[in-house]
Amino acid sequence: MKKVKNKFLLLFGLVPFATVLASGACQPAIKKEEPKPVNPGDNENGGSNENGSENQNGGGSSENPGENPSNPIVIDEDTLHITTNDLKYSITPENAKVINEYVDDEVDYFNRLAQQFPPKIAQNFKTQNIQIINAFNEQSKNSFQPYYIDSYLKNYSLPSGNNKIKINPIRGTFRQYYRKSTPGDRGTARKLANENYKQIALESYSIIFHNDNELIKNDPELKKMNVSSSQNFLGTAWILDYQLDETGKYPTKWYLATNLHVAMPFKKVAGSNDPYLNEPKLEEELNAQKSLLIREKEMEEEYKRDQALIEKYKKEQGPNSTKAKELEKKYSTADLNNLSPYIIEYNKIKKQIKHIADELQGKTVSVELNHFTKSTPINKLLETTSMDPSVEKISLDPSQVRIVYLGTNFLSQSPKDYLSNPEFQGVEEMADFAVLEIDFAKPKSADINAVIRKQITGGTSEETKYTDYHELAKQITAGYADLPSEQQSKPATYNVLTDYDKLTKEKVNINIDGTSKAISRINVNFLALGFPNADSDHTINRDALPPAQKVTLKFTSSLWTNKSSDPSKGIAEYGYGLSKSLAFRNFVDKPGITDITITSPLIKAETNEAFDVLNLRDKTSQYQGRYYINYGLGYVLNSWQPMAGASGSSVRDMYNNILGISYATADAQGISQVSLAQAFRSNGHNYNNQYGSYNLEQYDLIYGGGKYQISSYREKLMQIYGGNYKTKLFKQGTSVIPEEYKFKD
Question: Would you indicate the residue range of the signal peptide (predicted)?
Answer without folding.
Answer: 1-22
